[in-house]
Write a structure and sequence with these properties.
There is one protein chain. With about 350 residues, the chain is an alpha/beta fold. The protein is about 40% helix and about 10% strand. It has a 7-stranded parallel sheet. The longest helix is centred in the middle third of the chain and has 17 residues. It starts with 16 loop residues before the first helix and ends with a helix.
Length: about 350
Amino acid sequence: MSAGGKTAYDGPYEDGPVAALRRVAFLMERGREETRRVRAFRNAAATILPLPADEVARRVDAGTLTELAGIGPSTAAVIESAVRGQRPERLARLEAEHAGPLAPGGRELRAALRGDLHSHSDWSDGGSPIEEMAFTAIEVGHEYLVLTDHSPRLTVANGLSVARLTKQLGVVDAVDEHLAGSGFTLLKGIEVDILDDGSLDQADELLARLDVRVASVHSKLKMDPDLMTRRMVAAIRNPRTNVLGHCTGRLITGNRGVRPGSTFDARAVFGACAEHDVAVEINSRPERRDPPTKLLELARDLGCLFSIDSDSHAPGQLDFLDYGCERAEAAGIDPDRIVNTWPRDRLLAWARKR
């Protein structure tokens, strides 16, 4: 706080109401606030985006913003301040609370990351459209983002059928065409379920059309350790697999409750990853911290590649990478063994050679 009780974020504001609403939503997601409340600000931004600026200004003067569908008192207050060139009070407070690094360590490694290989949109269980995820990835400094919505078997997460994933690939092409020349690429991917027998939950010909494939176990986490080991090793040996996602599946905190991770022969699993050039994901979600530290260090010692991923389900969660970078730095992992420190073309060459 500065003298007089003002924050460093008080003062004139020139970015406009849509930017203010998006920034509020981003910071709320960073602070892990309730999705329903965040969505109100994103919906308000979508409501006023197509409106002429003078119409929004007239409604501010007339006090009629809340007559628009999707605009309530809280979102109207942000719009009114931004239109008048004043930094919205809510935005200033959120900047002061949530704008800094999410973790104190790993800052050099975070600066070295060029992208993120694990993200979700509202096509599966994410909260925002594909284009919003892409625009935010640009704003946080990414050169690429892999869109990895879920595969069909995960119905609880609205997993994508062959038809829906095929349609999504066309949307990704359209987004990249729109962003041509920006220096950013939205890459085609999937978080594909590892089925009970180790096969992958999507048609092989469709997996072949993707840039990056993250394979994860989401079911039967209490499977017998020997069977789980065989299941995971079979998926790792599949030439379509590039990244082994959140390997134990554990939850250690958060509103989804807690659960222990699956049990398997970690030496066999990570040895297979090293042999087949599959990256072990360092999942950055605070409720996962997967793999646990001892397993992370084992994968390091066995010579594995790694991918530090946000597993973001909302734009503000793209910054969860801070947590994974801190863990990777603490484990002493060489940045060149982290595939998302690589330029896009090197990443794609690695992903395709399997």
